[in-house]
Amino acid sequence: MLSSPTSNPASPTATPQGNGNNGGNGDGNDDGNSSGDNSNRGEGGGSGSSPDVDPAIISEHSLLTTRVGDVVEFAFIITNNVGRAQNVAATSHLPPFLEPLQVTTTWGTTAVEGHTVTAAIGDLYGGDTVTVRVQARVTSHALPPHNIAIATVSSGNDQEESNNAAAFVFWTFAP
């Protein structure tokens, strides 16, 4: 059972610097009239594109121990340390022993295609944090070296890619 793509209009944990349709005057402050629609966030009223951006990703758990048939939940957390990261997206290619059931995000939209889960986040400002949660069923034993799921984050203007991947290691045991 795969969930259909989801959208969450809630904002990231930090306050955005203007969101486009808010009558922004370019000073980085939200000038009101917010429509609640996150699709135009970052266009117009914000501080503009910055060459100094640093989106990063970490895993909420680095090791999950489970049994075949269990439903596991794991999360990756995307942050942007400085500037305005544009067109941010997170992707995880799940190993064959995991059947994705549901993917949610605190900002943006999600999609599942086969064993690949994605979150299209859009623009993230310095200090913004987004959490992507994945629920999956363990369908067979997780055997090394194929017991790792890697999640990556990308941005259209990220110059520093050393912190753009996070890993989850899975171990299964007999009942």
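Second entry:
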Amino acid sequence: MSRRRSPGDALRVPQAIAADVGGTAPRGSAPDLAPLRRIAEAWPAAVGEQLAQMAQPARIAGDGTLIVHARDASWTHALTLEERRILARLADLLGDDAPRALKVEVGVLAAPAEAPAEPAPEPPSAEALRRAEELTREVADPRLRDALRRLAAQSLERRKSP
């Protein structure tokens, strides 16, 4: 039962609650992220590459349930339908470290790792440039002619590469 409020209660200075909740978590302690890291590493093998792009492990709840964030509601539904298979696959991959339950919710996904950029192509040889010039000489529009000349030169250069 709550205590009855008086008109002066609104003017009271708020009190810190540290004394009331002291000892619930040691100061400076952080959760152990190793289990979640192991699950995240096994996730693509457990669910497949396509599904791994649409849903990712987010956290482990206090009762050991793996909370998974999905891109949208349709993916939460798909994951929920596959829950038993996913848990079994994680158990195969992780053994005793596997979660016992799964909860899927719509959430923010981490950005995928960017693929390494392809190296810039080598500039076309003088011969490829000369031949491209011959092929595009009759194009009236100078901007289009220039674009076609560059494209033709790159194509001719690629053709002679193995």
